[in-house]
Every structure is written in C-alpha cells, then in structure tokens.
Amino acid sequence: MKKDIVLRLLMLIIIVSLAASCTQTAATPTKNPELTSSPETKSAPTNTATPTQAPTPTETALPTATPAPIPCTIAFESDRDGNLEIYSMAPDGSALVNLSSNTGQDSAPAWSSDGSLIAFTSNRENGSGGGQFIYIMEADGGNVRQVTWEDNSNWPDWSPDGTFITYTHRGDIYIKKADGSAEAINLTNSPENDQESVWSPDGRKIAWLSGERNGKDIFVMDSDGNNKQKLTENSQASDVLWTIDGELFTHWNHPEGVCEKCVMGADGSNIRDAGGKGELQRFTPFRTLDGDRVECVGIDLIAGNEEIYLVGDIYPDIFLNLTNAEGNDRNPDWPANCLAGFEGAGTFGEAVPEMAQSASPVNMVIGYAGDTPEQKERAQDMQTACDELGIQVIYGEIPNLVDKGVDAIIQNTDQHAAAALRDDIQKAREKGIPVFLLDAELNAEGTYSVSIDYDHWAKTSLGWMLEKIGGKGQIAYFDLDSYHRYSEVINDLLARYPYVSVIEFRDGNYDPDKIKPETSDFVKMYPQLRAIWSSSSNFQSMWGLEENGIAYEEWPVLLCEANRPGLETWQRIQSVYPAFDCFASVNPPGIAYAAVYAAYYLKLGYTIDQSVLGGAFGRTLFVPLPTVTRDNFQEKLNELIKNETYYVDELMSPAEIREAWFLE
User: Fold this and answer.
1) Which of 333, 472, 594, 602 has the most neighbouring CB atoms within 10 Å?
2) Residue 518 is part of a domain; what is its CATH number?
3) Rounded to whole angstroms, how far apart are CA atoms 501 and 404?
4) What are residue 523's phi and psi, to 5 degrees?
C-alpha cells in the first residue's frame, strides 16, 4: 500500500515536470554511472591522424517505395539477476532475452542503425589481463568480439552507416572502424574530461559532453574531429542526443531560464524549450508495434528501482512499464532504421520520389559561379543537367548568389584560386547553402569537391607506363603539381617493380617551361631511358623532343593530353611512326553535370554517404577517371571534332551518381 502511495505521488510530480529522452532523464546519467571512470592521467593517444572515411561500405540505390519499418527492438542494461547484463525485448516488453549472459559487467548497449549489431561496454575476462573495453555482438547475442583495446573505454555509439564507432577512453573521444581493421584515433585529445559521444543522423557531426559528473558542457565537431565548437558555457548540461531531424536535445539548466529540456540547432542556435511530457516524441520518438509515436524513457518512478517506460497519451496512465522487474533497468536503445517514415527520419531510409528526367519534383535554383570561357564545357554540362531537371540557373559570384537565395552553389575554380573563396563560402554556409567546388578542395563544412581521384590518376597513368616497358628499365619523372604531390604514390607503385630504376626526377618548386629542354637532356644523357612521367605539361615533353630532332623511335614512353590538340598530336605522330603508343586522361567537364545532380539529391533529402568522400579533407566526391588509349583514341578524337569541344568528357548517369554517392 505504501508503495502505491509513493508511486501516485511520484506520478503527480513527474506528470508536471518529466520530459524524458530515449536514454535517461536529467536526474539520471544517460550512460551507466557505476562504470564511469574517474578522471585519470591520460594515456598517449593511439593515433592523432584524421580518420579515413574512405570507400566503405557498398552503397545501394534508394528505394522507390517506403519499406515496412523494422521493429524497434529495445536493448538495455539490467542488474536484475545480480550482475549487470545486456537484455533485449520487443517494443511492448515481451520476448525478453539476456544477450550478454556473462559474469563480467556489461552495459551501455548501442544498436547499429540497421538493427544487425549491438556495441556495448564490458569488463569481462578477455584473456589479456582484463579491463573495460568495447565489444560488438550480433542482434541475438552471438559472435561477440572485442573491438577496442584501450582500457577504461565506455559509451559506444555507431556512425549511421555502420562503418565506425566512437567511444570514450580516459577523457577523450576516440573513433575506430567497427570491423577493427584499423587503429583507434583520438578525435578530441584534450585535457578536459570528454565523454558520451553521439553521431548525428546524417553522419556529419559528433556531439559529446565535457566536464565532471555534476558539471558538463556540450560540444560538437565534424565526424573527422575538425571544427570543434562549444555550445554551452555554464557546465549545467547533463546529457546530449540528436533529434530525429538533426538538432540537439539536452537536459540543460539554461543560464537565462529559457529551458531545462532544450532543443537547439547543431551549431547551438535557435535554443528553445522542448516541451513537457508527451511532447518530446516530436524530437526523440519511439515506434510501438502498432506504429504509434511515443517516448521511450529509462527513469526511477519508484524510489530505488529504475525501469523502462513508454510515455504517451495512448496509455491510460500515461506511462507503460515495459520492464517491471526487481533491479535497475537502464539505458534503452533501439535501431534508428525502425523510425523510418516518421517526420524528420529521411536519413534513416525514408522513401524519396524518383527523379523525373524532364521536370524536377522540387522547386530549385542553382547558382553557378566562376564561369570562364576557358572552361565553357563545364558550364555546358552544368546547363545540360539543369535542363534535364527543369532547374533554374543563376550566374554570378558567391555573394551575389547568396543574396538571391539560391538552393545550392557550384563554384568553377581550381586549387590555386579556391583559398581566396573561403570567406564567401562561409557566408553561403551560414545561410545553409551547400557549395560544390569543381576540381578544388577546402576544409569547410557543407562544402564538397567534385573531381577525379588524382592519386588514382597517378597510379593508373604511371602503371600504364611501367607495364608498357615490361616492368624493367630506367625512368624519369616530373612531380610538379604544387597541390597534388605524387612522390609517395610513385614510390609505392615502384616498390612493385624491382627492376625499374629512377635515374632522374624533378619535384617541388619548378618552372614547367624547363620540362621541354630537360626532357631532351634526359634522353640524350641516358640512351637507355625507357619512360618519362609528368604530372602536367606533357605537351612540353613532346615539343622538346621534336624541336631537338630526336627520332620518334628513340622516344621514351610518354603521356599525352586528353584534349583535342593532344589527340591530334597523337594522330599526327602515329601517322609517321605507327608503333607510337600513348595514354591520356583528364578531369572531365562532366564534373559540373555531376555536381548539379549531387545538389539536387541533397535538396530531395538524400544523405551523402560519408564513407565515399575522399581527398585531402575527406570532402571530395570522385567521378570515374576517363582514359584514352590506343584502342579508343581515334573514337575520342572524332567525338571532339564532331561536337566542336576541347576536352575528352564523360558523364556519370543520374542513377550512377545516386548509387555511388548517396545512402539508401
């Protein structure tokens, strides 16, 4: 009877004041406090390099119809049997299963978004002296494997694509490939006590708490550890998690009394009260077996007994106790994909309309900046894509395009000019306008480059040369690009050819005009020279040899230019010396076509697959490398003559762009 009275009193209090997230209330830490390590002297970081978000895993095309949602199976931690274990249950509390069933302490379960795997913390016996590490198991508890090796690890969370996990280790946030194939990387590496990292629904951001048990602030960074930003200042936040539409929810004692249960933008803007009981389902929903949208919380309604509840007006007493057992049941979590179809859940696989070739299903305006006569074919390809989609184009420079309110900007540029655009691009990003750079890279959030993979180009072109000379002999090279440097790529490739020796090379600051005389000098000095590779100015090499009267049959293997003059030169030489062979490739004008479709798919609500981004800053969308060889050079030349164009061009199809760059 006394228990019932206490319950009624607590219910009245909570009905007035409770607003719970799908983890814990402000009074209860999101993660298991018993396993929280006290601040210690930090160990040396495992690594401090930027995590490679390289091509993994394989993407698939977006569905054409909304799939049936997977059940929101709940994983949670419980000490009901006297030992902390990971359990799972159906969304209605049935089908209870002890997944971990181990004598160690297992806690902090985190589902992968597709519902196939659970990461968790455990201090179980591991045959290596013990410790607290992160483990992963299948959804049924099978195939348990240890994925981290830093003692005192805790609070795992998954990237939305299932490629990476983040976790806390002795006051820093670490990231590691979920398959354990690479070393962990320290993302924060700070003297503060960083903890409880959580990924944004689109995989671009990571939020976390920093501070001591009773005084924490919220921070946000890019998923590669860059652009760290402190969002709160008074050390009064107790938790942080992402809302279904990419904002942040927190129990935070706002210094001006704006809110205690707060929602804010990912940059800390637009702070507002999230509402009370039942209203949080707008931001952090849970799906019942009947498809209803409610809240799922882990709270202590009965003093000393934490339980997991569903909260919503559809229940007679507002709260539905799912666990109802002795002991403490905490930290509920469920697969993100089970929320597909809810408002704001497009990044979890909600269907998006198929693209219509002749008319865009969205009202959209593209801004095109940096138009030049020398690269008119990029503008033509851009216009082709816009015509296909019925998208309006406005030409101008970035500030003017921002003022006109365009939906996305494509900036035609090169690496040397890109740095001067940083301030203008920042202004576009402040307005939420994505910027796509053609053949240039900047480390700026919301900015993407569209380009070939230059390292792949170097390997492909030099690889062709090495095969052409039979994998043996003397070569020389000019590594001249001030931004894309290839010496490391060259050396890695040459390691596979032990019978090839480099007798001359030029790199660093170098006048390209010297290529012409030095190519001839190399050939004269080294009669056995088999090949000369150059990162640019291949015309100079040919002109130098011709001007010095060196017979074609004495030429080393060279590269050609993938443009009309280059292929015409190829044709002219081959007509005199039929044995002449060459290789040419180019960053095609079609990158502008691809950029339009990338912007279009973003507008539709698709999410860029972070794992396919590459380049120096992990922000480049790679197009396939067009290549010209002896087998197709005449065909390519005929196309250039017929179309009155200058560069060899290739276009990715809209379906290829979507499948290659965007998540399902």
Assistant:
1) 594
2) 3.40.50.2300
3) 57
4) -65, -40
